[in-house]
Amino acid sequence: ILAIWHQLTKTEIPELTRVSVMMRERSRVEDTMYAMQKAGAGSLQVISDFDMTLTKFAHKGKRVPTTHNILNNKLLIDDDSTVKMKELFNTYYPIEIDASLNPEEKLPYMVEWWTKVHDLLIQQRIRKDEMARAVRESNAVLREGCSAFFDCLAEQRVPLLIFSAGVGDILEEVIRQNHVFHPNVHIISNYMDFDHTGVLQAFKGQLIHSYNKRAGALSHGATLRELHGQPNVLLLGDSLGDLSMADGVSTAQNILTVGFLNDQVEERKESFLNSFDIVLLRDETMDVPNAILRFIV
Ligand code: C5P
Ligand code: MG
Q1: Which residues line ligand 1 (CB under 6 A)?
Q2: Complex-level ipTM
């Protein structure tokens, strides 16, 4: 088996031998990939997080904005609110990624963060028709090779479920402006509810934050039912909370999980390695997911 693996990584997937790639159990990755290859594209679906997974963590030395942070724009909200949003980010993001706290301990803080920001955005009466411009003016950027990833999935008719605790309206605009909002893309996220004049009045449905994606997955039965014909799942995320995104796929046979470890790398390495099949250290590209995809389809 080792010899076969050696051959597989050396000849077919050189990307997996990079120093930035870590695996707890190579043999499990190998078995899963062969099983997925055997079943082919027709059995595959991809479930991916959005912020810091399909988008970069940093670009040209600067942090890339999340969908929430794209809304932190003077075009949409007043000066006091831009400061407030930044302060909330600086308060709660360190808690979100704190390696010394478990998800249950983080949960109340996450609810607090999302609730405060959503209330602020509603108070600021954000306009639907300014949304596209805010995205255009932002430094939102997809990972290198991300367009190829979207295009390949569309060509092979592999469903892509983007499961984001960000803002769905902004997420859609980002992928639209990158010309990758193909018909195979499905989205579960926090969507804005605008009144008849196009002003934000609420957020729709149950709040999704980084650590309740399991509940979100189970409550979106209808979206996920369409994906029930595809028992093999390639899951991409940048947070331990992203691992539950596939919990709604009751028919799952093989699941291969890839975790982008962007921040607090040393502190979180062990927990990521114990949780994701493949861990990518400070990798701003889609090279590994693209290579896996090429191997499977
Ligand atoms: O797509 P994803 O599920 O990653 O989107 C959620 C991310 O957005 C969180 O990981 C969090 O860091 C970020 N966030 C933010 N501002 C908020 C709430 C969440 O930047 N107000
Ligand atoms: Mg994320």
Answers
A1: 49-52, 66, 68-69, 89, 93, 96, 113-114, 117, 164-166, 210, 239
A2: 0.99
